[in-house]
Design a protein that fits this description.
Length: 285
């Protein structure tokens, strides 16, 4: 679990845009992975020279976070106290109500994918944030099979962090690194992602690089059960509401035409899954 340059920069942008970091919780004790050039870039853009003094690659991020974000109270949550977590709790089970709405910002630098009951874990982190507070989640997306139980997709973010679940999205991005050990990558490709509901189809990404999903969301209201209304995948909802049959309904066309249609759809999806698909992806940092 750790923070890379892209994650740190996003936190500093959130602060610059007015987010409060008075009380912060990290999911797990987070390490800090900043390469030399990235430290220079952060100093130049945000003027966090003092916070970066003494920073070591892979060391705990707590001192940097406290100084750079002006945090008054910084807690960490883990299933075990072996790394000195201040809140010991297994995210597989619901959190105590006494922890609800206790934090201005909750940061997950790569823990949710390791929790088997991921919907319970998601609901937990959503409950921890106060109304008006924010979440920053960074978890595996593509080409990190075996890292944890799950690899997450933009569809999950766009379906979960909605008004009916008490949140609004501020940013969804795919961050692609050079190596499966993403912290070792000094250069990253960052792609902001559009909502599949706006695009009108599934948001796909085919890449040979390991990727992470970065999600920034703001809490608009507190719900005792954020998933009392179950999220549904957007393209299926669109089909159900329109009543149109699936594109590849073979019963409606001869076999040769069904095979041809399947091939054309497959070729088209290669283009749709490219980072050059400007209807879906916008290169950012």
């Amino acid at each position: 679990m750790g923070l890379t340059y892209t994650d740190v920069r996003q936190l500093l942008v959130m602060q610059r845009e007015g987010a409060s970091f008075t009380r912060v919780l990290t999911v797990g004790r987070l390490s800090l992975f900043l390469h030399r050039g990235e430290i220079v870039a952060l100093r130049k853009e945000f003027g966090v020279d003092r916070a970066l003094e003494g920073v070591t690659f892979g060391g705990y991020a707590d001192p940097f976070l406290r100084e750079a974000l002006q945090i008054e109270s910084l807690d960490s949550l883990d299933a075990s106290s072996y790394e000195g977590a201040t809140v010991v709790h297994d995210l597989n089970v619901p959190i105590d109500e006494r922890l609800h709405e206790q934090y201005d910002v909750v940061i997950d630098g790569g823990s949710l994918e390791h929790v088997f009951n991921i919907t319970t874990a998601l609901a937990n982190v959503m409950k921890l944030v106060r109304v008006g507070g924010q979440l920053l989640l960074v978890n595996p997306a593509n080409n990190l099979c075996g890292h944890g139980f799950y690899q997450l997709s933009p569809e999950l973010a766009f379906s979960v962090f909605r008004d009916e679940h008490g949140f609004e999205l501020r940013r969804v991005a795919l961050v692609e690194a050079r190596f499966p050990n993403v912290e070792a990558s000094a250069g990253r490709l960052v792609l902001d992602v559009r909502d599949p509901r706006e695009v009108g189809r599934r948001v796909l990404r085919l890449s040979c690089r390991p990727g992470s999903l970065m999600v920034q969301a703001r809490k608009t209201r507190h719900l005792a059960d954020p998933f009392a209304v179950t999220p549904q995948q957007s393209d299926y909802v669109a089909h159900w509401q329109s009543g149109r049959p699936p594109l590849l309904d073979a019963s409606r066309r001869p076999p040769w035409l069904a095979r041809g249609a399947a091939y054309l759809v497959a070729v088209r999806e290669l283009a749709l899954a490219s980072r050059y698909n400007r209807r879906v992806y916008a290169r950012s940092r």
